[in-house]
Structures are given as structure tokens and as C-alpha cells.
Amino acid sequence: MNNSRRRMMQVAMLGTSSALAASMTGAFSTQVIGADTSNSTRNDACNALLSHELRPLMGPERRPLCEKYGNKVLLIVNTASKCGFTHQFEDLEKLHQRYLSEGFLVLGFPSGDFRQELENEADVAEFCELNYGVTFPMFEKISVTGKSAHPLYQQLAQATGKPPRWNFNKYLVNRNGDVLGYYPSSAIPMGPEIVADIEALL
Predict the structure, then answer these.
(1) What are the DSSP calls for 54-84, one per residue?
(2) Which tens digit of pLDDT belongs to each residue from 124-133?
């Protein structure tokens, strides 16, 4: 075999190896990107607000809120069992049931910041179920005010300029995880203002 033909064969073999390597690299890259996208919490379905990990009331494990509540309209409420506004549990449950099928949920966050919540989570859960038939998601007891506020409530306060000043403050969140409304303790959950704002987002 002369030198010219030998050189042509080497070039052909090199080209084939490069193409194969490029093909394998491309396939591997596609697979990795796909895996990262499916498991990431840094995407449109899980923005910063809903990326916070919280444990369901009496539940065993903290999970990002976006896993169950991404792409939903949410009314986030700090609750207490021994407050003058505790009767709002009844209307919050009615609101939750009325619009649940349309992608709306109430999320309740018990807090002892104002010294009106039961100490034990089991007692909180029993109180809500037995007295008001609460079925909307309730979460672990957290702080909602001051320097010790849970990061979720820090973000809610930053977005609205209004941290909770008492129990049963309410924050309305759209399907993209944007905080669009704030309502004080005195705002009635089934009142025309809150209902109209929720319906506008469904």
C-alpha cells in the first residue's frame, strides 16, 4: 500500500471516530439535560416562593410546596386555634371546597407567634378537624413574624410590604407563584373582595 492510500484510510478512520464520539456526546448531553430539567426545582413550575420545603401538619417529611401546589391559585393563611378570628376556619373551608375543582387551595400555617396556638401539632390537627371539618392542607407550626419568620413568610412580607400583624392574615398567590393580594385578619374569607380576586385568577 502506497503512502497516499495509507494516508486517505487514516483520515477516513479518524473522521468515523470523531463522528461516533460526537454522536455519543450529544446523546449523553441530551440525557443529562433531560434529567436535570425533570428533577429541578428551579423552573417555572417551582418559583422561589413555592420552592420552600415544609412539612404537612403531623407529617414525616418536608417537601417543596411546588410539588403539590405549583400552578395553583393559593390563599396562604397563618392560623391559630385560640383566636377571636378562629371561626374563619369555617369560611376558609367553604372557600377551599367551592373552588378546589378549579385549581384553588387554601394553605394553613399554624403559628404561636401571637401566643394563641396550641402547643402540640396533634392537638392542632384534632381541633381543626373536629370543630371546623378542615380538609385544606395544614402545615407544621412556624414563625411568621420578625427575624425568626420562616423564609416563606419573609418573602410574603417582602412582596406585599405587610408582614402578619395578627392571626388569619391572608396572601393571595397566582398560578405563577406571584403574590397578588394581602388581606388583614378582619377580611372575611367568603367576603366579596376575596371571592372576586380569587375568581379573577381562575
Answers:
(1) EPBTT-S--EETHHHHTTSEEEEEEE-SSST
(2) 999 999 999 9
- Whole domain around residue 33: which residue ranges? 1-39
Residues 137 and 167 in one domain: yes
CATH code of the domain containing 88: 3.40.30.10
**AA identity, residue 199:** E
Q: Are residues 31 and 68 in the same domain?
A: no
The pLDDT > 70 percentage for the chain reads 78
Cα gap 200→202, rounded to integer Å: 6
> Around Cβ 103, how many Cβ atoms within 10 Å?
14
Q: Which of 46, 66, 83, 128 is catalytic?
A: 83
Q: Is 66 part of the annotated catalytic residue set?
A: no
44 in a domain, yes or no? no
**Whether the predicted model's global pTM rises above the 0.85 cut:** no
